[in-house]
Sequence to fold (424 residues):
Amino acid sequence: MTTAKVYLLLTGNELMTGDIVDSNSAMIAQQCKAIGMKISRKVTLADDLHLLADEINTLTKNADVLIINGGLGPTTDDLTAQALAIACNLPLEQHPAALAHLEDWCQQRNAHLSKANLKQAILPKGCDIVPNRVGSAVGFTLILNKCQIFCTPGVPSELRIMLDEEIIPALESKSSFTAEMDITRLQLFGIGESTLQSMLVKYFPNWPKEVEMGFRASSPLIELKLTIEKHEHVPLKNELIKEIKALLDDHIVEEIKEKPRTLSEIVLQLCQQKNLKITTAESCTGGLIASQLTKVSGASASFEAGFVTYSNEMKSKLLNVDENTLLQHGAVSEQTVIEMAQGALKSANADLVIAVTGIAGPNGGSKEKPVGSVWIAWGSKEKIYSHYFSIKANRAYFQHAVAARALDLIRRLLINTDKVPLYF
Fold:
């Protein structure tokens, strides 16, 4: 089966100047790939009527599907409808369905339908409407040079709904557009992208061409994707997945079923499954770990309290860290982080704990304890584990890296693994 050629045309001066960072094309590409369609060409143009019209004409001569994103607003620099009309040699006219949508949209908001807004109902003659249930501008579609064109809004929230509810189902219904694509996505922590690729190349020197391997780095996690385009290759892909899981083992956080989850989401789910309470004691991360946990809906079922003890005085006062420990070993030490963990467990009456103390920088380091030094402790009332790391990076990256490793270490404890992670 030949997969449809899908092209993408993005419009807007803001995209060309960098005032707006393009995230829409990634959204469109991900949605298309899920149904077996790949974006094979992407073009970005400024708000220039004749440039847009010429490019639409050129792209549609080679594409099966063209998705145009942006330029549907009420202002004079929103040119998609006009450019498409020129490319198709069609007149512009007021579209009854687009006008009815605008009137309803304004009525719901008790707003006046202005002359500027009416521009959004002036569309190429004969086009079909693509509903937009949240925004003022409808999308629209027509065919040029045997290519199906979809015009979509630049507002990401509107685009996502339109893709989910209208465009992707329309494309999926045309079997000639889609391939028999099957994707398995594994989420990993603790292995860099280059290290992961080197491991897989070494372990699988004769990787089969029927299975496409792909990577997506999204700090702190990495996604490994295995894709096939024919269902007859499912057994081959499944065998590879089995071997990869054996190779990467506990570095695989989960197999993604719907959307990727964060480490904090995974940790909290494991705690809830085991009916365990978790607490945190943080110094150098300033509450970042607790913040990541409490971003998760329902976190209170497993997380009741966390402690941010930045000074030595507060480490002693709130977590009962012995003053002699701080005097003899310092705030950034194994002895201190263990006592922080023990104090947090007792104060919060929790089952599990994460504790961190370190030097985030750029100042404050010494020869014995340079910037980037951090001790992490994790465990339970029965046993506390600890480990030293040196993470040389800017302050923000250091804090996020410490939080990620701390959450991964407690995840490993929750899944009862005693294997040493590669980042040790």
